[in-house]
Amino acid sequence: MILNIHKQGIGKFVAIFFLLLIPFVCFASDKQIKESDDEGADFAERLPRTIFSGVQGKHHVQGVAVDLKHGFVYYSFTTSLLKTDMLGHTVGSVTGLTGHLGCITINPVNGLVYGSLEYKNDEIGQGIAGESAADRQTAFYVAIFDVEKINTIGMNAETDSVMKTVYLREPVFDYSSSSISEGYVEKHRFGCSGIDGITFAPEYGKKNGKMYLNVAYGIYGDTTRKDNDYQVILAYDIRYWGNYAMTLSQKKPHHNGPIWAAHKYFVYTGNTTYGIQNLAYDSATGNCYAAVYPGEKREFPNYSLFIIDGRRKARKEKLAGIDEPEKASVLRLLPQGLHDPESGIWGWHYDFGATGLCPLGNGFFYISKDATTADGRHSCTLSLYRWTGIADHPFTLVK
């Protein structure tokens, strides 16, 4: 059990403290931050080196979002959302979810937290909700949290007016459909296992482009098929999502949401284990970082970190391993880090990031590390890192 030591007076003090020390920088903002190394070091001095979530429940941390403007940190712990201040004091939490809450991000316009939310009847769904999940209807949502209202531990996701959801038809369609790959019928089109990585980012290849909500597919790590070697990212224009968003009844899931995404992108990374776990737009570079669990196909380098080049437009190409005549919009990886000449893939081997990777600006990141107690409860420690881009150690710990 976590002791809530974040009383009202302390909360106001911490918020004012960080507003005075930290300039207006929201990690998901689309404003470019160009500062010298000295200014970057000064920026880092104002940030805690570590932030500890406190010990939580039986599910590990899935993603984190840091709001420097208001001085709060948000953690997805699979079936709950935790809110702390920048010192790690608990402010409140949202509980009661029986699906999989994955990666989370902050809307730079309204400050709300958006997260991927899956309800499935497969082994993951049953691992979360028990055997009863075997009979549930598959449904994928973007969960939208009104974080200003989160001020108490254990607020209910269905009844306390802190969370609304928007149904995503397109990933449900691909999850439920089949594709033809080298003459074989494969279940789950493109290897879609659901959704996970999520971030706000401008349209690829357009300077100061319109902001879209990017939602990445989970991808099954099946080594015997050829149609699951791309990451799939849906880009949504959310300006009219107020017409769709509604409170979720988990026993009677709604289907209110857009029919299709505005854009559907593919990124050739080679197969991964369950796709992009954390997707994070970095306003300092204009690129998107994608952290994954490495794949196991021997023909690929199986990197765990990729950077999607945000300055290059998608190109229309026929997808490898998929027997469909239509060309798709393919994004490019940034040509930095390690390079595999056989596949042409760029990336890095890095042990962390899949459970939380949060750009702060100026080349600094908070990166999550999950820990487990002897009785199976999980916690998260965020550590401050600086990006180096070096092939064998892309991040360096800030001391």
Blueprint of the fold:
Blueprint: H1 8-21, H2 37-45, E1 50-52, E2 63-67, E3 72-76, E4 81-85, E5 90-95, E6 100-106, E7 113-119, H3 123-129, E8 139-145, E9 155-156, E10 163-167, H4 169-176, E11 178-181, E12 184-187, E13 192-202, E14 211-219, E15 230-236, E16 263-268, E17 272-282, E18 287-294, E19 305-308, E20 315-317, E21 328-331, E22 338-340, E23 345-347, E24 357-361, E25 364-372, E26 378-390, E27 393-397
Parallel strand pairs: 5-9, 16-21
Antiparallel strand pairs: 1-26, 2-3, 3-4, 4-5, 6-7, 7-8, 8-10, 11-12, 13-14, 14-15, 15-16, 17-18, 18-19, 20-21, 22-23, 24-25, 25-26, 26-27
The helix count comes to 4
Approximately what portion of the residues adopt beta-strand conformation?
Answer: 35-45%
Number of domains: 1
The biggest beta sheet is recorded as:
6 strands, mixed
What are the salient characteristics of this protein?
mainly beta; single chain; globular; disordered N terminus; 27 strands; 399 residues; Tachylectin-2, Chain A
